[in-house]
Amino acid sequence: MGYYDDHEENRYKQPNRKKGGSFLSGLIGAIIGALIVVLAFPVINDVTNNTSDNETTSTVENNQNSHNNVTGKTVSLDVTTDVTKAVAKAEKAVVGIANIQSQSFWSQQGQGDQSQETGSGSGVIYKKENGKAFIVTNNHVVEGADQLEVTLSDGKKLPAKLLGSDVWTDLAVVEVDGKEVSTVAEFGDSDKLKLGEPVIAIGNPLGQQFSGSVTQGIVSGVNRTVPMDLNNDGLEDWEAEVLQTDAAINPGNSGGALVNVSGQVVGINSMKIAQEAVEGIGFSIPINYAEPVINDLEKYGKIRRPAMGVTLQNVSDIPAYHQQETLRLPKDMNQGVMVESVSPGSPAGKAGMQEMDVIYELDGQKVNNILELRKYLYNNKKPGDTMKVKFYRQGKLKEATLTLSNESNL
Fold this sequence. Notes:
By secondary structure, this protein is of the alpha+beta class. 27% of the residues lie in helices and 34% in strands. The chain has helices at residues 6-13, 15-68, 82-90, 139-142, 287-300, 320-325, 347-350, 370-380, and strands spanning 94-103, 114-129, 132-137, 147-151, 157-166, 171-177, 198-203, 213-228, 238-245, 257-259, 265-272, 282-286, 306-307, 310-314, 337-342, 358-362, 365-366, 386-393, 396-403, 405-406. The longest helix is centred in the N-terminal third of the chain and has 54 residues, at 15-68.
């Protein structure tokens, strides 16, 4: 009884057969084993020798490294890309600009008149001529300065002279001695920029501590307009024409360069939207828009803009009662620009325009407010040009032709 194993039964029933088979199997196994050892010995010997050699070499190297206190191997990489090439081409043309203003006796509480840096920004060297170097920056970087100091990319500081500035375009040009200047920026074509195109911002965010900082982004928008309140009265005075980028632009970057992957300057960095809920929206003045302004500031110290010789008010700011009863405008008209005053001898005065005339059209183009009037005038006209003006006077439609004068002459 119990568990039955047929292999075990056969083993006891045929003892003589099992004994002969075992002897033969053992003999064959011994022969095969001997052959394996003979054939494998050279390979084993070779592996052993190699292992021994490697161990010896490793030991020697470890001993030598230990002797020389070498704990690792340093790998040097030479990384060159379109971005690094662009930066290398433009970086030395970007400078720092310090705005230095005098502090009065009273503000220093008896310490006497002193000068101190009250702000800083960046600038771009765009020209070197007759021993002088010319730098473009933002108007708000140099505004109110008693002195200006430029710091070159190598750290050398030079006194600078303000040649001219313009609040409307937020551009300014300064001049320094050109002996120490080695690199001049190359201007590109901002009209050819495409959405998504890589761009690089170079400047001095937060001042000289981080001078020559480089940030990369893309062109996020072209032909953008940003409303500007230049006199802080809560009303829009101008719309800046700008490029939008997500390349980081921080305080101190103002006036620095926005360059393309060819290392050409395509914009002058100007501002960013600084709101808690907003990230990565910076603006740059397109270089094609800035270049004629730069040339005028360098040559004349100001922009020669056309002027009518009037002060103005938006009709939309006038109560509806006065629109109808005082100005006697058509009932469906609640836009336009009212003339508040006319300068004697001005283009408007010579053309017969008067107070309370309401302008609604320039050269056949409708204008709804002061901003539109100013943009048409500044972007399409120059001093000496003629301009047809349509306006309402006491409910009657009239027209006058003005010969525009230079704004600085009024």
